[in-house]
Amino acid sequence: MACSNWKGWCVRASSRSRSLEGRGLLTLLLAAALGLSLLSVDWTGGLLHSRGVSSAVRIFGSIFTPELSPKFLGLALEATWKTLTFAVTGVTLAVGIGLPLGIAASGVVQRGMAANLHSGGSQVCAGVLALDELVWA
Fold it and tell me: What is the pTM of this model?
């Protein structure tokens, strides 16, 4: 029996068709979902809403006439300031934590330290990378 696996394991070929595995199965499922959704559309009625054009004109017209009231501009300024403070705080923490960890993990300071930091340091770095997800959640 010839071993075709990259690790050298001998694996028997499955009798299932390869077309229903992986991407082929996903493509088949997506095509079936599309077909079912097309069957649920009422093709005899109007597909476009009668007031849809007026709504679209109103939405695109608001691009050229933005709201400039002091209340709205104050709200936008406050949100911008909050976003900038989060960004500066995040970058400061990232540099403050990442730079020392990166130098220590590189082994430039001490050779044996790189092996010790590689085991637990990657989990610390992954936790730090997850902080922005927690802030924006």
Answer: 0.42
